[in-house]
Amino acid sequence: MNQKRVILEGSHFMNGDIACAEGAIAAGCRFFAGYPITPATEIAEHLAQRMLEVGGIYVQMEDEIASMAAVIGASYAGLKAMTATSGPGFSLMQENIGLAVMTEAPCVIVDVMRGGPSTGQPTLPGQQDVMQAKWGSHGDYEIIALAPSSVQEMFNLTIEAFNLSETYRVPAIVLADEVVGHMWEKVAIPPAQKIKIVNRKKANAPSEAYAPFMPDDDLVPPMACFGEGYSFHATGLTHDEHGYPQTSSSEVQQKLVKRLCDKIRKNADKIVRVEEVLLSDADIVVVAYGIVARAALSAVRKARAEGIKAGLLRPITLWPFPENHVAKIAQQTKAIVVPEMNCGQLVREVERAAKETPVTFLSKLGEEPHTPMEIFEAIRRNS
Amino acid sequence: MRIEIRFAGFGGQGIIKSGIITATAACIYSGKNAVQTQSYGPESRGGACKSEVVISEEEIDFPKVIEPEILVVMSQHAYNEYAENVKTGGIIILDPEMVPHEKELKNVRVFKVPATKIAEELGRKIVANIAMLGAFVAITGVLDKEAVKESIKVNVPKGTEELNLKAFERGYEYGKNLLKS
Question: Which of A245, A289, B86, B163 is the most exposed place for a label (fewest CB within 10 A)?
Protein backbone atom coordinates (compact mmCIF):
# COMPACT_ATOMS: atom_id res chain seq x y z
CA MET A 1 0.00 0.00 0.00
CA ASN A 2 1.57 3.27 -1.09
CA GLN A 3 0.29 5.72 1.51
CA LYS A 4 2.50 8.68 0.54
CA ARG A 5 0.85 9.02 -2.83
CA VAL A 6 -2.47 10.05 -1.34
CA ILE A 7 -1.28 12.56 1.23
CA LEU A 8 -1.88 16.11 0.05
CA GLU A 9 0.87 18.62 -0.56
CA GLY A 10 1.08 22.15 -1.96
CA SER A 11 -1.49 24.95 -2.10
CA HIS A 12 -5.17 24.15 -1.95
CA PHE A 13 -8.34 26.14 -1.66
CA MET A 14 -10.55 24.36 0.82
CA ASN A 15 -12.86 24.89 3.75
CA GLY A 16 -11.88 24.65 7.41
CA ASP A 17 -13.57 21.32 8.01
CA ILE A 18 -11.76 19.71 5.08
CA ALA A 19 -8.47 21.28 6.18
CA CYS A 20 -9.03 19.77 9.63
CA ALA A 21 -9.64 16.34 8.07
CA GLU A 22 -6.48 16.67 5.97
CA GLY A 23 -4.54 17.81 9.04
CA ALA A 24 -5.66 14.66 10.84
CA ILE A 25 -4.43 12.50 7.97
CA ALA A 26 -1.12 14.36 7.85
CA ALA A 27 -0.76 13.85 11.62
CA GLY A 28 -1.09 10.11 11.15
CA CYS A 29 -4.70 9.71 12.24
CA ARG A 30 -5.97 6.42 10.86
CA PHE A 31 -9.23 5.99 12.77
CA PHE A 32 -12.31 8.17 12.72
CA ALA A 33 -15.55 7.33 14.47
CA GLY A 34 -18.30 9.89 14.47
CA TYR A 35 -21.85 10.95 13.94
CA PRO A 36 -22.31 13.77 11.42
CA ILE A 37 -23.61 17.08 12.72
CA THR A 38 -23.74 20.60 11.33
CA PRO A 39 -21.34 22.43 11.15
CA ALA A 40 -18.79 19.60 11.47
CA THR A 41 -20.36 17.24 8.92
CA GLU A 42 -17.80 17.96 6.20
CA ILE A 43 -15.05 16.52 8.42
CA ALA A 44 -16.86 13.17 8.60
CA GLU A 45 -17.87 13.34 4.95
CA HIS A 46 -14.33 14.02 3.79
CA LEU A 47 -12.75 11.39 6.03
CA ALA A 48 -15.31 8.76 4.95
CA GLN A 49 -13.47 8.76 1.65
CA ARG A 50 -9.98 9.76 2.68
CA MET A 51 -9.57 7.18 5.45
CA LEU A 52 -10.04 4.44 2.89
CA GLU A 53 -7.47 6.03 0.58
CA VAL A 54 -4.80 6.09 3.29
CA GLY A 55 -5.56 2.63 4.65
CA GLY A 56 -7.35 3.91 7.74
CA ILE A 57 -10.73 3.10 9.27
CA TYR A 58 -13.88 5.20 9.15
CA VAL A 59 -16.89 4.21 11.23
CA GLN A 60 -20.20 6.00 11.25
CA MET A 61 -21.41 5.28 14.78
CA GLU A 62 -24.93 5.16 16.18
CA ASP A 63 -24.33 8.29 18.28
CA GLU A 64 -21.66 10.47 19.85
CA ILE A 65 -21.42 8.46 23.07
CA ALA A 66 -20.40 5.41 21.07
CA SER A 67 -18.17 7.53 18.80
CA MET A 68 -16.06 8.66 21.72
CA ALA A 69 -15.92 5.12 23.12
CA ALA A 70 -14.72 3.78 19.77
CA VAL A 71 -12.04 6.47 19.60
CA ILE A 72 -10.69 5.41 23.01
CA GLY A 73 -10.68 1.77 21.91
CA ALA A 74 -8.83 2.60 18.70
CA SER A 75 -6.30 4.68 20.63
CA TYR A 76 -5.65 1.78 22.99
CA ALA A 77 -5.26 -0.47 19.96
CA GLY A 78 -2.41 1.80 18.86
CA LEU A 79 -3.99 4.08 16.27
CA LYS A 80 -4.18 7.83 16.27
CA ALA A 81 -7.91 8.37 16.55
CA MET A 82 -10.30 11.29 16.17
CA THR A 83 -13.94 12.26 16.24
CA ALA A 84 -15.63 15.48 15.17
CA THR A 85 -18.85 17.03 16.37
CA SER A 86 -20.65 20.18 17.46
CA GLY A 87 -22.29 21.28 20.72
CA PRO A 88 -25.04 18.67 21.11
CA GLY A 89 -22.67 15.83 20.23
CA PHE A 90 -19.93 17.31 22.40
CA SER A 91 -22.33 17.12 25.36
CA LEU A 92 -22.94 13.44 24.71
CA MET A 93 -19.21 12.75 24.49
CA GLN A 94 -18.38 14.24 27.86
CA GLU A 95 -18.59 11.11 29.95
CA ASN A 96 -16.25 9.20 27.69
CA ILE A 97 -13.91 12.19 27.42
CA GLY A 98 -13.55 11.71 31.17
CA LEU A 99 -12.76 8.04 30.55
CA ALA A 100 -10.08 9.08 28.04
CA VAL A 101 -8.65 11.45 30.64
CA MET A 102 -8.63 8.76 33.33
CA THR A 103 -7.22 6.00 31.10
CA GLU A 104 -4.83 8.52 29.51
CA ALA A 105 -5.88 7.59 25.99
CA PRO A 106 -4.39 10.00 23.43
CA CYS A 107 -7.15 11.19 21.09
CA VAL A 108 -8.45 14.28 19.33
CA ILE A 109 -11.98 15.68 19.52
CA VAL A 110 -13.00 18.40 17.11
CA ASP A 111 -15.88 20.62 18.23
CA VAL A 112 -17.01 23.03 15.53
CA MET A 113 -19.05 25.32 17.76
CA ARG A 114 -22.55 26.44 16.74
CA GLY A 115 -25.15 28.37 18.66
CA GLY A 116 -26.45 26.65 21.83
CA PRO A 117 -27.75 25.67 24.34
CA SER A 118 -29.30 22.38 23.20
CA THR A 119 -29.77 22.11 19.43
CA GLY A 120 -29.73 25.92 19.31
CA GLN A 121 -28.80 27.35 15.92
CA PRO A 122 -27.21 24.55 13.90
CA THR A 123 -25.87 26.60 11.01
CA LEU A 124 -24.73 29.65 12.94
CA PRO A 125 -21.46 30.21 14.80
CA GLY A 126 -20.82 30.35 18.54
CA GLN A 127 -18.04 30.19 21.11
CA GLN A 128 -20.25 28.78 23.80
CA ASP A 129 -18.43 25.51 24.50
CA VAL A 130 -15.23 27.04 25.90
CA MET A 131 -15.98 26.20 29.52
CA GLN A 132 -17.52 22.87 28.56
CA ALA A 133 -14.25 21.91 26.88
CA LYS A 134 -12.51 22.46 30.19
CA TRP A 135 -15.11 21.31 32.68
CA GLY A 136 -17.58 19.19 30.67
CA SER A 137 -16.83 15.85 32.25
CA HIS A 138 -17.12 15.30 35.98
CA GLY A 139 -14.17 15.21 38.34
CA ASP A 140 -10.98 17.23 38.33
CA TYR A 141 -8.79 17.10 35.28
CA GLU A 142 -6.82 19.21 32.87
CA ILE A 143 -7.24 19.08 29.14
CA ILE A 144 -5.82 20.75 26.05
CA ALA A 145 -7.99 22.87 23.75
CA LEU A 146 -6.81 24.78 20.67
CA ALA A 147 -8.78 27.50 18.87
CA PRO A 148 -8.05 27.96 15.15
CA SER A 149 -8.89 31.25 13.48
CA SER A 150 -8.14 30.43 9.86
CA VAL A 151 -8.45 27.51 7.48
CA GLN A 152 -4.66 27.12 7.55
CA GLU A 153 -4.87 26.78 11.33
CA MET A 154 -7.60 24.16 11.03
CA PHE A 155 -4.92 22.11 9.27
CA ASN A 156 -1.97 23.10 11.49
CA LEU A 157 -3.71 22.93 14.86
CA THR A 158 -5.29 19.55 14.14
CA ILE A 159 -1.75 18.22 13.70
CA GLU A 160 -0.70 20.10 16.82
CA ALA A 161 -3.64 18.60 18.75
CA PHE A 162 -2.49 15.10 17.82
CA ASN A 163 1.10 15.92 18.78
CA LEU A 164 0.11 17.32 22.18
CA SER A 165 -2.33 14.49 22.80
CA GLU A 166 0.34 11.90 22.04
CA THR A 167 2.93 13.74 24.14
CA TYR A 168 0.79 14.10 27.27
CA ARG A 169 -1.62 11.17 26.83
CA VAL A 170 -4.60 13.45 27.19
CA PRO A 171 -7.59 14.20 24.95
CA ALA A 172 -6.87 17.30 22.87
CA ILE A 173 -9.77 19.36 21.61
CA VAL A 174 -9.81 21.44 18.45
CA LEU A 175 -12.32 24.11 19.44
CA ALA A 176 -13.33 25.66 16.14
CA ASP A 177 -16.41 27.67 15.22
CA GLU A 178 -18.88 27.51 12.36
CA VAL A 179 -17.27 30.38 10.45
CA VAL A 180 -13.80 28.85 10.52
CA GLY A 181 -15.23 25.40 9.77
CA HIS A 182 -17.18 26.49 6.71
CA MET A 183 -14.92 29.28 5.48
CA TRP A 184 -12.90 28.65 2.30
CA GLU A 185 -9.31 29.89 2.22
CA LYS A 186 -5.94 28.91 0.88
CA VAL A 187 -4.03 26.23 2.75
CA ALA A 188 -0.35 25.52 2.17
CA ILE A 189 0.51 21.92 2.99
CA PRO A 190 4.23 21.26 3.34
CA PRO A 191 5.84 18.00 2.21
CA ALA A 192 5.15 15.22 4.71
CA GLN A 193 8.77 15.02 5.88
CA LYS A 194 8.67 18.70 6.90
CA ILE A 195 5.64 18.27 9.16
CA LYS A 196 6.54 17.64 12.80
CA ILE A 197 4.84 14.51 14.03
CA VAL A 198 4.98 13.29 17.61
CA ASN A 199 4.14 9.73 18.60
CA ARG A 200 3.34 8.47 22.09
CA LYS A 201 6.10 7.01 24.22
CA LYS A 202 6.00 3.27 23.84
CA ALA A 203 6.33 0.85 26.73
CA ASN A 204 9.82 -0.58 26.81
CA ALA A 205 9.85 -2.51 30.07
CA PRO A 206 9.56 -6.30 29.83
CA SER A 207 5.95 -7.42 30.07
CA GLU A 208 6.16 -8.79 33.62
CA ALA A 209 7.74 -5.56 34.94
CA TYR A 210 5.46 -3.17 33.05
CA ALA A 211 3.35 -0.87 35.19
CA PRO A 212 0.96 0.81 32.74
CA PHE A 213 0.41 3.96 34.81
CA MET A 214 3.91 4.48 36.19
CA PRO A 215 4.92 7.92 34.95
CA ASP A 216 8.33 9.10 33.79
CA ASP A 217 9.74 12.36 35.12
CA ASP A 218 7.44 14.33 32.80
CA LEU A 219 4.51 12.71 34.65
CA VAL A 220 3.43 10.84 31.51
CA PRO A 221 3.52 7.02 31.56
CA PRO A 222 4.86 5.19 28.51
CA MET A 223 2.00 3.42 26.75
CA ALA A 224 1.61 -0.20 25.79
CA CYS A 225 -1.15 -0.89 23.33
CA PHE A 226 -3.40 -3.89 23.04
CA GLY A 227 -1.81 -6.57 20.95
CA GLU A 228 1.78 -5.59 21.71
CA GLY A 229 2.33 -8.45 24.11
CA TYR A 230 1.59 -6.66 27.38
CA SER A 231 -1.08 -7.80 29.71
CA PHE A 232 -2.59 -4.98 31.74
CA HIS A 233 -5.71 -3.43 33.12
CA ALA A 234 -7.13 0.00 32.21
CA THR A 235 -10.14 1.37 34.04
CA GLY A 236 -12.13 4.50 34.72
CA LEU A 237 -11.95 3.70 38.43
CA THR A 238 -9.19 5.30 40.43
CA HIS A 239 -6.23 3.01 39.87
CA ASP A 240 -2.66 2.52 41.00
CA GLU A 241 0.42 2.38 38.77
CA HIS A 242 -0.44 -1.18 37.83
CA GLY A 243 -3.87 -0.17 36.58
CA TYR A 244 -5.79 -1.92 39.33
CA PRO A 245 -8.77 -0.21 40.97
CA GLN A 246 -8.12 1.38 44.35
CA THR A 247 -11.53 2.69 45.21
CA SER A 248 -10.99 3.33 48.89
CA SER A 249 -7.42 4.60 49.08
CA SER A 250 -7.17 8.36 49.65
CA GLU A 251 -3.50 8.22 48.86
CA VAL A 252 -3.98 6.66 45.42
CA GLN A 253 -6.77 9.10 44.56
CA GLN A 254 -4.61 12.01 45.68
CA LYS A 255 -1.62 10.82 43.70
CA LEU A 256 -3.45 9.92 40.49
CA VAL A 257 -5.75 12.91 40.15
CA LYS A 258 -2.97 15.30 41.06
CA ARG A 259 -0.71 13.75 38.44
CA LEU A 260 -3.44 13.95 35.77
CA CYS A 261 -3.71 17.67 36.49
CA ASP A 262 0.00 18.29 36.99
CA LYS A 263 1.15 16.64 33.77
CA ILE A 264 -0.61 19.53 32.01
CA ARG A 265 -0.19 22.29 34.63
CA LYS A 266 3.53 21.74 35.09
CA ASN A 267 4.08 21.54 31.36
CA ALA A 268 1.82 24.49 30.57
CA ASP A 269 4.73 26.66 29.43
CA LYS A 270 5.55 24.07 26.80
CA ILE A 271 1.93 23.65 25.72
CA VAL A 272 0.63 27.23 25.66
CA ARG A 273 0.62 29.06 22.34
CA VAL A 274 -0.47 32.64 21.70
CA GLU A 275 -0.22 35.14 18.89
CA GLU A 276 0.91 38.62 19.92
CA VAL A 277 0.30 41.60 17.65
CA LEU A 278 1.53 45.14 18.41
CA LEU A 279 1.68 44.50 22.16
CA SER A 280 5.00 46.12 23.08
CA ASP A 281 3.64 49.66 23.45
CA ALA A 282 -0.08 48.92 23.66
CA ASP A 283 -2.27 51.01 25.96
CA ILE A 284 -5.26 48.85 25.23
CA VAL A 285 -5.24 45.15 24.38
CA VAL A 286 -7.92 43.01 22.78
CA VAL A 287 -7.91 39.37 23.87
CA ALA A 288 -9.78 37.35 21.25
CA TYR A 289 -9.67 33.86 19.73
CA GLY A 290 -11.15 31.91 16.83
CA ILE A 291 -12.99 33.85 14.16
CA VAL A 292 -13.48 36.83 16.49
CA ALA A 293 -9.70 37.36 16.56
CA ARG A 294 -9.85 38.17 12.83
CA ALA A 295 -12.30 41.01 13.49
CA ALA A 296 -10.16 42.07 16.45
CA LEU A 297 -7.03 42.23 14.29
CA SER A 298 -8.83 44.45 11.81
CA ALA A 299 -10.07 46.67 14.66
CA VAL A 300 -6.58 46.94 16.16
CA ARG A 301 -5.15 48.01 12.80
CA LYS A 302 -7.87 50.61 12.42
CA ALA A 303 -7.19 51.92 15.94
CA ARG A 304 -3.47 52.19 15.20
CA ALA A 305 -4.25 54.10 12.01
CA GLU A 306 -6.16 56.58 14.17
CA GLY A 307 -3.34 56.94 16.67
CA ILE A 308 -4.70 54.66 19.40
CA LYS A 309 -2.04 52.29 20.72
CA ALA A 310 -3.99 49.05 20.50
CA GLY A 311 -2.70 45.48 20.42
CA LEU A 312 -4.02 41.95 20.11
CA LEU A 313 -3.33 38.92 22.28
CA ARG A 314 -4.78 35.82 20.67
CA PRO A 315 -4.85 32.69 22.81
CA ILE A 316 -4.29 29.74 20.48
CA THR A 317 -4.43 27.33 23.40
CA LEU A 318 -7.57 28.17 25.35
CA TRP A 319 -6.71 25.31 27.75
CA PRO A 320 -4.35 25.47 29.41
CA PHE A 321 -5.22 29.15 29.54
CA PRO A 322 -2.26 31.46 28.83
CA GLU A 323 -2.58 33.23 32.16
CA ASN A 324 1.05 34.29 32.35
CA HIS A 325 0.75 36.08 29.03
CA VAL A 326 -2.41 37.86 30.15
CA ALA A 327 -0.91 38.75 33.54
CA LYS A 328 2.13 40.22 31.80
CA ILE A 329 0.23 42.43 29.37
CA ALA A 330 -2.18 43.44 32.14
CA GLN A 331 0.75 45.04 33.95
CA GLN A 332 1.76 47.03 30.87
CA THR A 333 -1.59 48.09 29.53
CA LYS A 334 -4.39 50.36 30.74
CA ALA A 335 -7.38 48.30 29.66
CA ILE A 336 -8.35 44.98 28.12
CA VAL A 337 -11.29 44.24 25.82
CA VAL A 338 -12.59 40.69 25.40
CA PRO A 339 -15.06 40.04 22.57
CA GLU A 340 -16.61 36.57 22.54
CA MET A 341 -19.53 34.89 20.80
CA ASN A 342 -21.09 33.86 24.09
CA CYS A 343 -22.37 35.43 27.31
CA GLY A 344 -18.93 35.60 28.93
CA GLN A 345 -16.68 32.56 29.23
CA LEU A 346 -12.96 33.05 28.55
CA VAL A 347 -13.35 36.62 29.84
CA ARG A 348 -13.57 35.14 33.35
CA GLU A 349 -10.10 33.67 32.94
CA VAL A 350 -8.84 36.97 31.53
CA GLU A 351 -10.28 38.87 34.52
CA ARG A 352 -8.68 36.42 36.91
CA ALA A 353 -5.25 36.85 35.33
CA ALA A 354 -5.57 40.61 34.72
CA LYS A 355 -6.18 41.35 38.43
CA GLU A 356 -6.56 45.15 38.79
CA THR A 357 -6.52 46.01 35.08
CA PRO A 358 -10.06 46.79 33.91
CA VAL A 359 -11.56 44.24 31.53
CA THR A 360 -14.48 45.08 29.24
CA PHE A 361 -16.53 42.21 27.87
CA LEU A 362 -18.21 42.39 24.47
CA SER A 363 -20.88 39.74 23.91
CA LYS A 364 -22.29 38.72 20.55
CA LEU A 365 -24.73 35.93 19.77
CA GLY A 366 -26.34 34.78 16.54
CA GLU A 367 -25.54 34.93 12.87
CA GLU A 368 -22.46 37.10 12.62
CA PRO A 369 -19.30 37.45 14.67
CA HIS A 370 -18.40 40.92 15.95
CA THR A 371 -17.63 43.35 13.16
CA PRO A 372 -14.25 45.12 13.26
CA MET A 373 -16.19 48.36 13.83
CA GLU A 374 -17.89 47.03 16.98
CA ILE A 375 -14.55 46.05 18.48
CA PHE A 376 -12.97 49.31 17.33
CA GLU A 377 -15.69 51.28 19.12
CA ALA A 378 -14.98 49.33 22.31
CA ILE A 379 -11.26 50.06 21.93
CA ARG A 380 -12.00 53.77 21.49
CA ARG A 381 -14.37 53.93 24.45
CA ASN A 382 -11.83 52.27 26.72
CA SER A 383 -8.63 53.94 25.52
CA MET B 1 -7.60 46.97 -2.25
CA ARG B 2 -10.30 44.97 -0.52
CA ILE B 3 -13.29 44.03 -2.69
CA GLU B 4 -16.41 42.61 -1.09
CA ILE B 5 -18.93 40.58 -3.06
CA ARG B 6 -22.19 39.10 -1.80
CA PHE B 7 -24.16 36.36 -3.59
CA ALA B 8 -27.63 35.85 -2.18
CA GLY B 9 -30.73 33.81 -2.93
CA PHE B 10 -32.23 30.67 -1.51
CA GLY B 11 -30.80 27.25 -0.72
CA GLY B 12 -30.50 24.96 -3.75
CA GLN B 13 -29.72 27.68 -6.31
CA GLY B 14 -25.98 27.21 -6.09
CA ILE B 15 -25.41 30.48 -4.25
CA ILE B 16 -22.65 29.05 -2.05
CA LYS B 17 -21.11 27.36 -5.07
CA SER B 18 -20.96 30.72 -6.90
CA GLY B 19 -18.97 32.16 -4.02
CA ILE B 20 -16.60 29.22 -3.92
CA ILE B 21 -16.01 29.40 -7.69
CA THR B 22 -15.33 33.14 -7.45
CA ALA B 23 -12.98 32.82 -4.49
CA THR B 24 -11.12 29.88 -6.04
CA ALA B 25 -10.70 31.87 -9.27
CA ALA B 26 -9.22 34.77 -7.32
CA CYS B 27 -7.03 32.70 -5.02
CA ILE B 28 -5.80 29.78 -7.10
CA TYR B 29 -6.06 31.12 -10.67
CA SER B 30 -5.34 34.86 -10.20
CA GLY B 31 -2.73 34.86 -7.43
CA LYS B 32 -4.75 37.08 -5.09
CA ASN B 33 -5.88 36.51 -1.53
CA ALA B 34 -9.48 35.45 -1.24
CA VAL B 35 -11.82 34.06 1.34
CA GLN B 36 -15.37 32.78 1.08
CA THR B 37 -17.83 32.59 3.96
CA GLN B 38 -21.44 31.58 3.98
CA SER B 39 -24.65 31.77 5.88
CA TYR B 40 -27.63 29.53 5.43
CA GLY B 41 -30.51 28.11 7.37
CA PRO B 42 -31.00 24.52 8.47
CA GLU B 43 -33.07 23.77 5.34
CA SER B 44 -30.99 22.35 2.49
CA ARG B 45 -33.38 23.86 -0.06
CA GLY B 46 -35.58 26.89 0.00
CA GLY B 47 -34.20 28.78 2.99
CA ALA B 48 -32.42 32.13 2.78
CA CYS B 49 -28.81 31.74 1.76
CA LYS B 50 -25.84 33.98 1.19
CA SER B 51 -22.29 33.46 0.16
CA GLU B 52 -19.69 36.16 0.61
CA VAL B 53 -16.31 36.64 -1.00
CA VAL B 54 -13.53 39.02 -0.03
CA ILE B 55 -10.71 39.52 -2.53
CA SER B 56 -7.58 41.49 -1.77
CA GLU B 57 -3.97 41.92 -2.85
CA GLU B 58 -3.11 42.05 0.84
CA GLU B 59 -3.64 39.69 3.76
CA ILE B 60 -7.33 39.47 4.64
CA ASP B 61 -7.94 39.91 8.36
CA PHE B 62 -11.72 40.05 8.73
CA PRO B 63 -13.14 37.46 6.31
CA LYS B 64 -16.77 38.54 6.35
CA VAL B 65 -18.41 41.06 4.07
CA ILE B 66 -19.43 44.30 5.79
CA GLU B 67 -20.65 46.53 2.97
CA PRO B 68 -20.30 44.91 -0.44
CA GLU B 69 -19.33 46.69 -3.64
CA ILE B 70 -21.23 44.03 -5.56
CA LEU B 71 -24.48 42.20 -4.82
CA VAL B 72 -25.51 39.31 -7.06
CA VAL B 73 -29.04 38.45 -6.08
CA MET B 74 -31.38 35.65 -7.13
CA SER B 75 -34.42 35.91 -4.88
CA GLN B 76 -36.89 38.60 -3.87
CA HIS B 77 -36.36 37.82 -0.22
CA ALA B 78 -32.59 38.28 -0.48
CA TYR B 79 -33.08 41.44 -2.54
CA ASN B 80 -35.33 42.92 0.13
CA GLU B 81 -32.80 42.01 2.78
CA TYR B 82 -29.58 43.16 1.14
CA ALA B 83 -30.30 45.68 -1.66
CA GLU B 84 -29.92 48.70 0.60
CA ASN B 85 -26.66 47.46 2.09
CA VAL B 86 -24.60 47.92 -1.11
CA LYS B 87 -21.78 50.45 -0.96
CA THR B 88 -22.35 53.83 -2.61
CA GLY B 89 -21.37 53.56 -6.27
CA GLY B 90 -21.73 49.79 -6.09
CA ILE B 91 -23.37 47.28 -8.41
CA ILE B 92 -26.45 45.08 -8.08
CA ILE B 93 -26.89 42.25 -10.54
CA LEU B 94 -30.31 40.62 -10.33
CA ASP B 95 -32.41 38.07 -12.15
CA PRO B 96 -35.68 39.92 -12.92
CA GLU B 97 -37.62 36.67 -12.97
CA MET B 98 -36.61 35.98 -9.37
CA VAL B 99 -36.73 39.62 -8.26
CA PRO B 100 -39.92 41.10 -9.77
CA HIS B 101 -40.24 43.95 -7.28
CA GLU B 102 -37.51 46.53 -7.09
CA LYS B 103 -36.94 49.40 -4.71
CA GLU B 104 -35.95 52.94 -5.59
CA LEU B 105 -32.22 52.81 -4.99
CA LYS B 106 -29.83 55.72 -5.28
CA ASN B 107 -26.13 55.62 -6.06
CA VAL B 108 -26.02 52.02 -7.26
CA ARG B 109 -25.97 50.65 -10.77
CA VAL B 110 -28.48 47.86 -11.36
CA PHE B 111 -28.03 45.23 -14.06
CA LYS B 112 -30.83 42.81 -14.92
CA VAL B 113 -29.72 39.42 -16.16
CA PRO B 114 -32.38 36.82 -17.03
CA ALA B 115 -30.18 33.99 -15.78
CA THR B 116 -33.03 31.58 -15.11
CA LYS B 117 -34.29 32.06 -18.67
CA ILE B 118 -30.80 31.61 -20.11
CA ALA B 119 -30.42 28.38 -18.10
CA GLU B 120 -33.81 27.11 -19.23
CA GLU B 121 -32.82 27.71 -22.85
CA LEU B 122 -29.84 25.45 -22.21
CA GLY B 123 -32.23 22.83 -20.86
CA ARG B 124 -31.17 22.95 -17.19
CA LYS B 125 -32.51 25.56 -14.80
CA ILE B 126 -29.89 24.48 -12.23
CA VAL B 127 -27.10 26.34 -14.09
CA ALA B 128 -28.76 29.74 -13.64
CA ASN B 129 -26.20 30.60 -10.97
CA ILE B 130 -23.38 30.02 -13.46
CA ALA B 131 -25.07 32.20 -16.09
CA MET B 132 -25.31 34.85 -13.40
CA LEU B 133 -21.64 34.37 -12.65
CA GLY B 134 -20.79 34.95 -16.32
CA ALA B 135 -22.69 38.23 -16.30
CA PHE B 136 -21.00 39.18 -13.01
CA VAL B 137 -17.54 38.67 -14.52
CA ALA B 138 -18.43 40.65 -17.66
CA ILE B 139 -20.04 43.55 -15.80
CA THR B 140 -17.63 43.98 -12.90
CA GLY B 141 -14.32 42.94 -14.41
CA VAL B 142 -13.01 42.03 -10.95
CA LEU B 143 -11.76 38.69 -12.24
CA ASP B 144 -10.23 37.38 -15.43
CA LYS B 145 -12.71 35.38 -17.47
CA GLU B 146 -10.30 32.48 -18.08
CA ALA B 147 -9.49 32.21 -14.34
CA VAL B 148 -13.19 31.83 -13.57
CA LYS B 149 -13.60 29.21 -16.28
CA GLU B 150 -10.73 27.18 -14.80
CA SER B 151 -12.37 27.49 -11.40
CA ILE B 152 -15.73 26.33 -12.78
CA LYS B 153 -14.08 23.23 -14.22
CA VAL B 154 -12.74 22.12 -10.83
CA ASN B 155 -15.76 23.12 -8.78
CA VAL B 156 -18.75 21.68 -10.67
CA PRO B 157 -19.73 18.00 -10.63
CA LYS B 158 -17.85 15.81 -13.10
CA GLY B 159 -19.67 15.48 -16.40
CA THR B 160 -21.39 18.86 -16.14
CA GLU B 161 -18.37 21.01 -17.05
CA GLU B 162 -19.45 21.63 -20.63
CA LEU B 163 -22.99 22.65 -19.71
CA ASN B 164 -21.74 24.95 -16.97
CA LEU B 165 -19.15 26.58 -19.22
CA LYS B 166 -21.85 27.14 -21.84
CA ALA B 167 -24.07 28.80 -19.24
CA PHE B 168 -21.13 30.92 -18.15
CA GLU B 169 -20.45 32.07 -21.74
CA ARG B 170 -24.10 32.96 -22.32
CA GLY B 171 -24.22 34.96 -19.13
CA TYR B 172 -20.92 36.61 -19.99
CA GLU B 173 -22.18 37.68 -23.43
CA TYR B 174 -25.38 39.01 -21.91
CA GLY B 175 -23.37 41.03 -19.40
CA LYS B 176 -21.09 42.43 -22.10
CA ASN B 177 -24.12 43.56 -24.13
CA LEU B 178 -25.62 45.24 -21.07
CA LEU B 179 -22.44 47.25 -20.65
CA LYS B 180 -22.60 48.40 -24.30
CA SER B 181 -26.20 49.54 -24.12
Answer: A245
A178 HSE (CA, 13 A, CB side): 28
Q: What is the ipTM of this complex?
A: 0.93
How does pLDDT run across A52-90, given as a tens digit for each residue? 999 999 999 999 999 999 999 999 999 999 999 999 999
Contact B39, A123 (CB under 8 A): yes
Mutation site, A45, A119, A185, interface B, largest B CB count within 10 A:
A185
Binary contact (A13, B27; C-beta < 8 A) = yes
Return d(Cα B171, Cα B166) in angstroms, integer: 9
CATH topology of domain A4-194: Rossmann fold (3.40.50)
CATH of A275-382, one of 3.40.640.10, 3.40.50.850, 1.10.10.60, 3.40.50.920: 3.40.50.920
Q: Domain locations in chain B?
A: 3-180
Q: Note whether A4-194 and A275-382 share their fold.
A: yes
| Topology (CATH level 3) of domain B3-180 | Pyruvate-ferredoxin Oxidoreductase; domain 3 (3.40.920)
- Domain residues of chain A, as ranges? 4-194, 275-382
For chain B, the average pLDDT equals 95
Computed over every residue of chain A, the mean pLDDT equals 96
Does residue B43 carry a pLDDT above 80? no
Chain B: closest CA distance from residue A148 (Å): 14
Residues of A in contact with B64 (CB under 8 A): 179, 295, 368-369, 371
Q: Which residues lie closer than 8 Å to A84 by C-beta, 6 or more apart?
A: A17, A20, A32, A34, A40, A43, A44, A109, A110, A111, A112
Q: What is the pLDDT of residue B47?
A: 81
Cα of first residue to Cα of last residue in chain A, in angstroms, is 60
- Angle among Cα A135, A140, A141 to the nearest 5 degrees reads 75
For helices A16-27 and A151-168, the axis angle rounded to 10 degrees is 40
Taking only the tens place, the pLDDT of each residue in B72-123 is 999 999 999 999 999 999 999 999 999 999 999 999 999 999 999 999 999 9
Chain B contact set for A371 (CB, 8 A): 62, 64, 66
How far apart CA A70 and CA A174 sit, in angstroms, is 18
Over the stretch A1-15, which tens digit does the pLDDT of each residue have?
444 457 889 999 999
**Residue B44 pLDDT level (bands cut at 50, 70, 90):** low
Helix H segments across chain A?
16-27, 41-53, 64-76, 87-103, 130-135, 151-168, 178-182, 250-265, 268-271, 290-305, 323-332, 346-354, 372-382
What is the predicted pLDDT for the residue at A1? 43
